[in-house]
Structure to design on (285 residues):
């Protein structure tokens, strides 16, 4: 039996905007055949991802965190429940010094793997998981990091994007989130780059890959998969590059996609031919 691989974004795709996992999505994940491997691919940190893996009852395999900068293998034999199998870092000083002049009041966070974040000032409650430490500028930029996050709660997403574009970022990969939120990763790193390494590691053929996401940091991932699916709540630019658009996350739009994945797997159909039982969920855009 040939293995399949399904890459799932978390927030706005698998989880609602309030971070809830519906019974419908949980049951659809649990009902996938054994030859379908679910790989979570998220912008979340490790510490914010592992509780979701437990809730989904994913007890083995891999997860892509920090938008592709960190890949973990689930290993219940370890005290943490996982092992880091891939990590890509970069020097944050040049990009942060550039952004410092363009976004002087932005809150900055650099991830400490498996612990939390070092921050320039506290973020709004509930936005960062794990321990946060307020540190001075020199400590923020002192060491190579997997990811830098900037947040400007006072700005709209549109205002924030304009400021980021004026900064003219070079030598890094970045994605602006649904709010005034910017994630910066090492150049060339994305969910797609990490998922490709996982795909090769577990021996899944490219035609047997599906990815589902809802935000700009999912664009590369949807391109990468044989069948890329955008959620109904995704921005137009994400819907435009997807092979299929399903329903809104608040309406369990992921469920028909997972049902279609299961059907395709049972029939031995390559995912590049689409996800059959999800046809009723397709939207025009």
């Amino acid at each position: 039996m040939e293995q399949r691989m399904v890459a799932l974004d978390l927030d706005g795709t698998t989880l609602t905007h309030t971070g809830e996992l519906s019974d419908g999505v949980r049951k659809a994940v649990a009902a996938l055949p054994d030859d379908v491997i679910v790989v979570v691919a998220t912008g979340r940190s490790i510490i914010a991802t592992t509780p979701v893996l437990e809730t989904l009852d994913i007890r083995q395999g891999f997860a892509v965190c920090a938008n592709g900068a960190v890949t973990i293998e689930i290993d219940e034999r370890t005290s943490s429940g996982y092992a880091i199998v891939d990590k890509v870092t970069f020097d944050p000083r040049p990009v942060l010094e550039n952004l410092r002049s363009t976004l002087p009041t932005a809150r900055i966070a650099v991830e400490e793997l498996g612990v939390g974040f070092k921050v320039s000032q506290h973020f709004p409650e509930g936005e960062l998981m794990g321990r946060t430490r307020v540190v001075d500028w020199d400590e923020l930029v002192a060491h190579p990091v997997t990811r830098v996050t900037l947040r400007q709660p006072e700005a709209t997403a549109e205002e924030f994007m304009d400021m980021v574009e004026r900064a003219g970022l070079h030598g890094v990969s970045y994605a602006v989130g649904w709010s005034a939120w910017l994630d910066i990763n090492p150049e060339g790193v994305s969910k797609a780059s990490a998922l490709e390494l996982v795909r090769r590691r577990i021996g899944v053929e490219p035609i047997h890959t599906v990815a589902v996401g809802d935000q700009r940091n999912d664009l590369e991932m949807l391109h990468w998969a044989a069948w890329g699916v955008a959620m109904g709540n995704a921005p137009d630019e994400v819907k435009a590059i997807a092979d299929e658009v399903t329903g809104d996350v608040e309406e369990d739009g992921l469920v028909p996609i997972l049902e279609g994945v299961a059907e395709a797997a049972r029939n031995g159909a390559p995912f590049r031919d689409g996800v059959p039982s999800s046809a009723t969920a397709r939207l025009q855009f």
About this structure: DSSP finds nine helices and 14 strands in the chain.
